[in-house]
Amino acid sequence: MNNKVHQNTFCRLFFLLTLMLLCGLHVSAQYVQGIITDAATGETLPGARVFYQDDKRTLVASDLKGQYKIRYRKGDLVFSMIGFETKIYHITSSQKLNVKMVETASNLAQVEVTGKKKKYTRKDNPAVAMMEKVIAAKKQSDLREQHDYLSYMKYEKMTMAMNEVTEKVFEDEHFKALPFLKEHVELCQETGKLILPLTIDEKVSHVIYRKNPKSEKTIVVGDRSEGVTDLINTGDIVNSFMDDCFTDVDIYKDEVRLLQYPFTSPIASGAIKFYRYFLADTVMIDKQKCYTVEFGPNNDQDFGFSGTLWILADSTWQIKRVQLGIPSRSDVNFVDHMDIIQDFAPLPSGEQVVVDNKMILQLKLTSWLSKFQVERTVRYSGYDFSDIPDRSFKIKGDTKIESSAKMRDEEFWEEQRPTPLSTSESQMDLFMQRIESIKGFKAILWVGKAFIENFVETSIDPHKPSKVDIGPINTTFTQNFVEGFKLRASAQTTANLSKHWFGRGYFGYGFGDKKFKGLAELTYSINPKDYLPREFPKSNISASYFYDVIAPSDRFIQTDKDNVFTSLKWTKVEHMAYIQRMQMQYDREWENGMHLVATARRERQEGAGNLFFQPLHTATQDGTSRLDQVDAEGNYYPLPEQNTQANLSMANKQYLTTTDFSVAFEYQPGASWINTKQRRLKTNFDSPIWGVSHTMGVKGLLGGEYNYNLTDFTVYKRFWLKTWGKFDLYMKAQCQWNKVPFPLLCYPVANLSYIMEDYTFNLIDNMEFVTDRNATILMSWDLNGKIFNRIPLLKKLKWREYLGCNMYWGYLSDKNNPFLAQNADDSDLYYFPGHFDQDGVFTYNGQLMDVQRPYVEVIAGIHNIFKLLHVEYVHRLTYNTPSTQRWGIRFMFRASF
Fold first, then answer.
1. CA angle (886, 890, 764) in 5-degree steps
2. Residue 56 and residue 78: Cα distance in Å, rounded?
3. Dihedral through CA 263, CA 269, CA 274, CA 280, nearest 10?
4. Are residues 710 and 740 in contact, defined by beta-carbon separation less than 8 angstroms?
5. Which candidate, 182, 231, 360, 783, has a CA 20 to 30 Å from the CA of 351?
6. Which residues are within 8 A (CB) of 704 and not within 5 positions of it... i.e. 6 or more apart?
């Protein structure tokens, strides 16, 4: 009996935690849907208007195949279209309702003028003619073009709720013991569905703009957040992600960034070719006569809007209202339904400005999880074109948060809100108190957060935040050629211990080499932090000690080298090195996108596995020269009989010690990030990134053995190709200016794992190409389903095509080439790495590159498999030898809209 009680209690807690972490019970959506056809001909009618008689804001339009889908609510459903008789059906339940529209004789001429949509054409289409005038006149409605200064107040409210909650949910045995949940369920007026609000965020801002010199600043004067994200110490990732995805929609711009994608505006410069427009009827809105134009993309699986424009019936051709959605067959992931409604009002000057903006998205992660609703309401007020003092624009970055913004009282919020909060929204504190009071909830939440965040907190109580987090968990055990099986324990302190001082590190042991390794790092953040020192903008000073074994390629990979998943390699990595590093670093970011990193470092490398450090002049055990075979081109090679493991072991140089200083600059205007406990993720890929760095090695300082200078230049740019997806270009040039041994030369950024990594080569082996001058070009083209969406059957899968090409040019100058006779006795150079075959004969690993012939690999991939899996086929085109791998399969899991 007791076991059953405990089991039921655990199940209730598990279900509740799942709900808090965006996983809940699935309740089937309820719709009225069907096909609208011409009663006389049987042809489908795209662009027919469907709405509930008591609320035209529910309006949807049939797509190019005459299909419509509208959320069920009890009432009279209207079907309307120019040239056809209006039909009204009384709806009492969700159902499939096919409608046959009867053409009206009196409107035959009008039908001919507007195009009855049997075959869409732009020629002689009055809707297209009208939209051309709207597009031509839109510049007159751009306040930033028409005025030298602009300021206004902006109120934002964003809520996330569990959607389509019914009595069936609370009849489930797991929720019967949680009767209070019913008290927080409410009716969404826009959708007619029951929702359970989980979070609410409000913000009040003052926006100022100056045309010359161009500058726009946002001063946040009020900011509050309540709900389930408060239970997660890095809950800002949810808020930041929602802010990044559900942004302001400005239809007067050619591209509208939404859900991290650029959507073509229905009044963009090139919109006539992208959309189909249909002239509907004439209506009165706020006593102003408006033309109604309905639109949708030519291909309803492209990233475009469908909806309705209400255009003022005067010579200004300004927008009075717009309703935006996405076609039901759109290729956008996880969005089941979207509605954006914007209302415009005239200023005393006669200009139309947006005053209300409401966005409602119905999110559906999978068919077996609950749907969720995100609602964003924005109210604009106080438009002013008066001069603004220059000192007001001397704000670092684009946004300033006033010190009192998060301490505003309820009186402030009641004054700022255009409409009062709903009962459930106003009781969010009570809802969270009840959730936290459930017996065992804190422990279940603790386990759930560890699974999601990859870190284990040392405090179970949400009101006593963790001061130390243990993790990353996925580095607890791993394996490699030198260490064999490895165990590792990692931890980091948080701002709950100190907002300025942070520590992190790990302790590991390899059972193969029987050595202990670790990292100890102490960071001082000049700016106080909310949780971790990497939060933007950084201004940190850190000191660290590192001792571990790594492969040379590990230096370039962003993922932790001990990640258990990336430890599975497509090639045998036998050349590794023990690295002992002591480092001081200053890391500074500015709000304008400038990033500076200055580093002082002493490092000692020791060969591990089959990696050895041996100067060229070193003799073998019998006293003969290591270089005594010459080919026809003057290249020297060791004699096979002298290349035994014993001879090389006797002559090995144990360590390579370097001391260097480096400075790196990176600039990305508009840089933005989302913070997680393990790393921070870049969210703005639209603006270019420029980078330059220089590293200077100093011989004789702290045991440094070489003078050297290494310079890097990098450029990244994303190009949006409208309906053809996005094209990413990454370029890098690198030069080692001095004579140095191979560990200090340049190598391509090689990914040896089956897991895809950004900005890496997929089929270059470990240390395969050694250069001191090189250039990298990485190109990728995500077509976003442009081709697959036009292939019958295949388009139902919503797969997305991906093409790529990676190229690497390089050469090794004579001064660093150990195979030239002139360098035979140069002790500054080392023998290049290689391996022994089964007969003990030594063979060099890499290849010298021909500067006229680049390394090239091409990629063809399918992304968005099950909305999560990305798979790529990689083929190597150049520098193929019997030992190289010419093709491979790479994959990764990544969700996106």
1. 40
2. 10
3. 100
4. no
5. 360
6. 602, 657, 658, 659, 660, 697, 698
